[in-house]
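User: Show me a protein chain along with its predicted structure.
Assistant: Here is one chain, sequence first, then structure tokens.
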Amino acid sequence: MGCVGSTPAKGDGNVKMIRKPKPWKHPQPITKSEFVQMREEFWDTAPHYGGKKEIWDALRAAAEADLTLAQAIVDSAGVIVQSADLTVCYDERGAKYELPKYVLSEPTNLIQESRE
């Protein structure tokens, strides 16, 4: 038999379901190749912002996955999700990981590359 206190609390901050980020717009129209380059530059430099490389790798995998797989990735990596859209997360030691929206979704003003 369990007691009343043995059930998980609804306000448990460690388990937050991931959701898609809200639509956003880049300050100026941007091409797909420029956008991909921005993402790559962020992920290449992310470990230099602090935290553990393994957590950055897990966050990248989650950012590039569908929601169900992303949830499994952050859960198995021990990532504590502060913002459900993954913009603010923590590892088990309390290190903060901030992800810009551009690594989580595409802007609404993405433009076609010109063919010359």
